[in-house]
Amino acid sequence: MEAGCDEAGRGCLAGDVYAAAVILPEGFENELLNDSKKLTETQRYQLREIIEREAIAWAVGIVTAHEIDKINILRASILAMHRAVDGLTIRPGHLLVDGNKFNPYPGIPHTTIIKGDATYMNIAAASILAKTYRDDYMLSLSKEYPMYDWQSNKGYPTAKHRAAIRQYGVTPYHRLSYNLLGEEPRQLAFDF
Hints:
Blueprint (H helix, E strand, L loop, with lengths): L1 E7 L8 E7 L17 H14 L2 E7 L1 H7 L1 H14 L7 E5 L11 E4 L7 H24 L5 H4 L5 H10 L24
Parallel strand pairs: 1-4, 4-5
Antiparallel strand pairs: 1-2, 2-3
């Protein structure tokens, strides 16, 4: 049995990174899931219900913004996928991972696939779960911090989000290791 793994929220300025691992039954088909990048928000949530109902096993893993600042986003994304695999009720025999970087999970071989969510149903399913669970999380945070427009931008670097950082500063959910304001690094001038 193969589990598909994918993450959501790598490029965000705020919030945790989420990942999911999904084992689908053999022969699972869904036309909508084949083209996950073109889905509407409504379609993603409809698919989440189907995936959760029909998957043999699924789990979501989370790495906090604070952890991201400590270990960097690539390591955090991989750790979130490991945590998702940890949460599976059935141990898969193989992992299919979206992207080209992954640290081996103990005792389970893996294959990385660039744009795997467009090719493999179980990766597409993992992508849907990671994205919708992260969106739910950012919507809940937006109630606490409405000025950052997280209900719309989900923590991504929009002009409105960056303007709010300039005006109100950072929150405990911002990734402080990121270039939050999008400014070019300043060159130091030395006189010799």
